[in-house]
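Why run this: before we spend reagent on co-expression, it is cheaper to look at a predicted model of the complex and decide which construct boundaries make sense. The entries below are exactly what would go into the expression plan.
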Amino acid sequence: MQLYLPIAEVSVNIFLILGLGGLVGVLSGMFGVGGGFLITPLLFLAGIPPAVAVATSTNQIVASSFSALLGHLRRRTVDMTMGAVLLAGGLVGSGLGMAVFNWLRARGQVDLLVELSYVIFLGTVGAMMLVESLNALLKSRRPGARPKRRKHYWVHALPLKMKFRVSGLYISAIPPLLVGLSVGVLAAIMGVGGGFVMVPAMIYLLGMPTKVVIGTSLFQIIFVTAFTTMLHAVTNQTVDIALALLLIAGGVIGAQLGTRIGARMKAEQLRILLALLVLAVCGQLALGLVLRPAELYEIQSVAPS
Amino acid sequence: MIRLALLLVAIALPGHMARAEEIVLGLSRDQVAITATFDGSDILIFGAVHREAPPPVNADPLEVIVTVAGPPETAIVRHKERRAGIWINADAVRIEGAPSFYAVATTAPLGEVLSITEDLRLAVSISRAIRAAGNRAFETANHVAALVRIRKAQDVYRLQEGGVDLDRETLFRTSLALPADLVAGNYTTRIFLTRGGKVIDSYETVIGVRKVGVERWLYDFSREQAALYGLLSLALAIAAGWAASAAFTGWRR
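The model came back. Tokens follow.
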């Protein structure tokens, strides 16, 4: 069954788009990532123009993240205080990131920077998570192993201490603000919600429990992507509401399934899967940079001047 | 008085052969409506050659060329090169006025039915139609060639030699399959009659492609009330997220 999309100006298969939305929804619910780094390339493959794909996927992420967040709220696995602090840093960060993005665009080569930063960040984050979670899984299998005591990082020595009740933390507000800030910068440059950077940062830098991390990440992703959607709708007019609705319909259902799958899995297993997923996307992007492309030219259509 | 009239006719109809044979055109439809379920459209372009006198004896055979051009747009063509082991965009060329869709159908190979000078003058072939918009052909030759190659592969630039049927040098017809991912706008349709590579008559008309119904309403809404449109998108997203969550909770109980 075909549907002609009013803004994208292409005709797509309804079930293909529903399926894509569903797949990304499952991942979103399981790992607390928005899935922007996954849905956008998939939409390119489905023949949607890049500008519309980027803008519309942010709108879809709002829906699937909100659906998943409600599931987490019921289980009380959202640290609102932490989310608010991260978001405060994140909004400042997106402002900075947007400035960096425009500066780079004026010099050309924005695509390259985006792809390189994807490869570097996804590669580093994925490899670190994989090693750590495999270690944790092996240790937990060994009989008689004692759970490790929570480490004291340098972050615990900073001023401005706040109580994060749900996470069970009493730490300075400066590290979460900095994490939010740097993720905000990345999100603006790379055009994603930043969940795949945020989640590991919360686990390894802030020492938050994995189960709380996901809900909290979703909480702040909703605000960041809602902001981005408005920006795209107003400045570029590239949000395709028909495409978004299809993706959303698939995505919200997928997100509910994902939350349930996630709740039944061990934290280590979840982290291993997320690490593998992140590494797979990184590998695919890295190959694209290194291998000779089949077509050396590419066309970008713009409105007649 | 009669002499003056003859003179006027001679000025109005340049070329001695002109208008001895004229095109009378019909279209199966001159409006294409893009609805939500739009999945491409077939248009039949047909017509006849009108003659006051019998066709010239010993003349070259009559040939017909039909071109359909979508709304012009600006295309940025980027070229990748390998630098320090990775493929990056090395140079880019803006090509102005490249049609989003361009189809040429002829009764015989284009090189035989149209001389190079006529092609230069009227911009009929695909590469001429792009270069006609004042693009510096010399500097952009590789990029224009790439644009044509990629769009031919996407089937939005087409050359159908032998795609026009001509019956007894009088009746001609061709069928045009418009793709599903059609850009709305005016599709300029041109028909040329040629003999020995020279154009003896031409005719131009427009096929209007318009979005209708919900498609049109949403498109206009997104352009005219962008902020409201954005808020509506967000509201729908939040509502859908909530509805799914509520539905699943209810279903589990």
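The mean pLDDT of chain A is 79. The beta strands of chain A are 2-4, 11-13, 161-164, 169-172, 297-302. Bring this page to Monday's planning discussion.
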